[in-house]
């Protein structure tokens, strides 16, 4: 359940920035890197949406 929820949040977050993952998908390496960062940041007792938005923004603006 959590995995499906996370992928849906990622898809929606990327859509907010104009990238449709169904048309322009991430590579498997990028997915793994993003999921690992989300898991690491989530340990800090923050909300899911905050973590996902911050990670996606950093990825899209090359601030990783």
From TrEMBL:
Q: Which InterPro entries match?
A: YqzH (IPR025546)
Q: What is this protein called?
A: YqzH-like protein
User: Whose protein is this, by species?
Assistant: Metabacillus sediminilitoris
What lineage is this protein's organism placed in? Bacteria, Bacillati, Bacillota, Bacilli, Bacillales
């Amino acid at each position: 359940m959590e995995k499906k929820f996370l992928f849906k949040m990622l898809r929606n977050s990327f859509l907010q920035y104009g990238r449709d993952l169904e048309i322009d998908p991430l590579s498997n390496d990028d997915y793994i890197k993003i999921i690992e960062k989300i898991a690491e940041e989530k340990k800090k007792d923050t909300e899911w949406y905050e973590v996902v938005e911050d990670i996606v923004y950093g990825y899209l603006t090359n601030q990783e």
